[in-house]
Every structure is written in structure tokens, then in C-alpha cells.
């Protein structure tokens, strides 16, 4: 049985996808060899969201060497949230790990996110990474800090860095959530809305080695306002929980 599914959305990440795959395989291989560790099997699912470069070709050349790789391809670009959802729906693991395909998230942090799930209650829904010493441009860091403060004030989810792609969560919990574009930035709030616990851990952050960021500060701001209002509405419209028992 596959226990861990690592889901990586990618778009035009040739030059990054291959090295990242090898790093993940090395980290997970060491984790699987640890006799005291619960996690013994895993898969790596790349979701190519309509790339126009050689991202999928680069991954295909690795599949003989690393047979745990699976490659899903969107015929058109539907965005990061849809790519994550496609990967989670196809996943065989009970625990999902996500990270960005640009190589800025460090795979060495994956065990830190998985450890709490080894003996966790079913109410633990997610371990969310929070980037320390971000390696982005000053303008991007400043815009992200401002957006996170506004979102945290409005949603009261205690999250300081919802833009960090490095997360681990229960597959069944994710599939309970309402889907909409850009939902990946609100996973913490949405899981808390459903009664799940979310914990936060500091993780590393690295410079991008190849390619370019797919997001700008202005387009994030524009879509972020409408998304934030929608999530506020979702929080308010959740019916109060009731005890359910079978008789």
C-alpha cells in the first residue's frame, strides 16, 4: 500500500523538475529505510499544468531510473489549485505532501512535516510549512507579508505564510473541501472550518535556479480580494456541528 503521495504542480519548470525529483527520491528513500519510521512506501505525482516547454519530457526520462514517478498532464493551463486537486484525486496515499515545482521548497523538510502524522489523532488535518529566510525579491516578500496580515486578520486562522507550497495533509480531509480556483492559498482556513487541527512548522526556502515565477504582485492582489471575501462567506455559512451517532 502506498502511504505517502507527493504531489507537485508544475508549469514550464524544465531544468527544475528533474533535479527536484532526485532530491525527493533521496529524502524519501532514507526515510523508508529507517526501521523506526512508519512511512515505507511513496509515490511522486507531477501534474503538468499545460507547460509549453520540455517539463514532461524531462520527467519521462527519469521514469526508468525512478519508477515511483507518475506524470499527469492538463491539456490546458487551469492553475495551481486545479493541478493540486488533480494530483490528490489520483493519489494512492493516505497522506499528501505538496511542494512547489520550482525547487525553492527544500525536500529535506518533508520528514519534519510527516513526523506528527505517525501517531496523530484523526483530527489532525495538516502540517503547514512557514518559510524562514525567504529567497524572493524584496517586493515579493513585502507584498506577501501585507497580504498574509490582511488575510490572517480577516480569517483568524493563525497562519503567517499561506503561500508556502510545502504542506502535508490527509487526503480524505482535502477531498471534503469545497473546490474553487486559488483554493490552495486557503487550505488552512478551509480545514479549520471543517474542524481539523492545523499545525505550523518552520521550513527552509531556496533561490530559484531556472525559469521564472508565474505570479505577479498585482494579479495576486486582484484575485486575492474576491477570494478572501468568498472564504469569509464560507466560514460564516457553515452550519453548527451536531453530534451524529448510529443506533
Oligomer: single chain
Shape: globular
What's the count of strands? Answer: 7
* Beta-strand percent range: 15-25%
Order of H and E elements: EHEHEHEHEHEHHEH
Instruction: Report the mean per-residue pLDDT as an integer.
Output: 85
CATH topology group: Spore Coat Polysaccharide Biosynthesis Protein SpsA, Chain A
Q: What ranges have pLDDT less than 50 throughout 5 or more consecutive residues?
A: none
Residues in helix, %:
25-40%
Largest sheet: 7 strands, mixed
CATH architecture: Alpha-Beta Complex
Please outline the helices and strands.
Blueprint: E1 4-10, H1 17-33, E2 42-49, H2 55-60, E3 69-74, H3 80-90, E4 95-98, H4 110-114, E5 124-131, H5 138-155, E6 167-170, H6 171-175, H7 187-193, E7 197-203, H8 217-236
Parallel strand pairs: 1-2, 1-4, 2-3, 5-7
Antiparallel strand pairs: 4-6, 5-6
Would you kindly provide a written description of the structure presented here, covering whatever features stand out?
The chain is of the alpha/beta class and 247 residues long. The protein has a single domain, classed as Spore Coat Polysaccharide Biosynthesis Protein SpsA, Chain A (Alpha-Beta Complex), CATH 3.90.550. It is 36% helix and 18% strand. The protein has a seven-stranded mixed sheet. Helix 2 links the parallel strand 2 and strand 3. Helix 5 packs parallel to helix 8. The protein is globular. The two termini are 33 Å apart. The model has no long low-confidence stretch (mean pLDDT 85).
Amino acid at each position: 500500500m502506498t502511504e505517502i503521495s507527493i504531489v507537485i504542480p508544475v508549469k514550464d519548470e524544465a531544468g527544475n523538475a528533474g533535479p527536484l525529483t532526485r532530491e525527493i527520491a533521496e529524502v524519501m528513500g532514507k526515510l523508508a529505510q529507517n526501521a523506526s519510521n512508519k512511512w515505507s512506501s511513496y509515490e511522486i505525482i507531477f501534474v503538468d499544468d499545460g507547460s509549453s516547454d520540455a517539463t514532461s519530457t524531462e520527467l519521462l526520462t527519469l521514469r526508468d531510473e525512478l519508477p515511483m514517478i507518475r506524470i499527469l498532464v492538463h491539456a490546458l493551463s487551469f492553475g495551481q489549485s486545479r493541478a493540486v486537486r488533480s494530483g490528490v484525486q489520483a493519489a494512492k496515499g493516505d497522506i499528501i505532501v505538496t511542494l512547489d515545482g520550482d525547487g525553492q521548497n527544500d525536500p529535506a523538510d518533508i520528514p519534519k512535516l510527516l513526523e506528527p502524522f505517525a501517531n496523530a489523532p484523526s483530527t489532525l488535518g495538516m502540517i503547514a510549512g512557514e518559510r524562514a529566510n525567504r529567497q524572493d525579491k524584496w517586493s515579493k516578500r513585502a507584498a506577501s507579508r501585507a497580504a498574509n496580515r490582511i488575510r490572517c486578520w480577516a480569517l483568524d486562522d493563525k497562519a503567517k505564510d499561506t503561500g508556502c507550497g510545502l504542506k502535508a495533509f490527509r487526503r480524505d480531509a482535502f477531498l471534503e473541501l469545497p473546490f474553487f480556483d486559488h483554493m490552495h492559498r486557503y487550505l488552512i482556513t478551509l480545514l479549520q472550518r471543517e474542524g481539523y487541527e492545523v499545525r505550523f512548522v518552520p521550513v527552509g526556502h531556496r533561490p530559484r535556479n531556472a525559469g521564472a515565477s508565474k505570479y505577479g504582485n498585482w494579479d495576486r492582489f486582484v484575485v486575492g480580494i474576491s477570494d478572501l471575501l468568498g472564504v469569509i462567506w464560507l466560514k460564516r455559512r457553515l452550519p453548527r456541528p451536531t453530534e451524529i451517532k448510529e443506533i
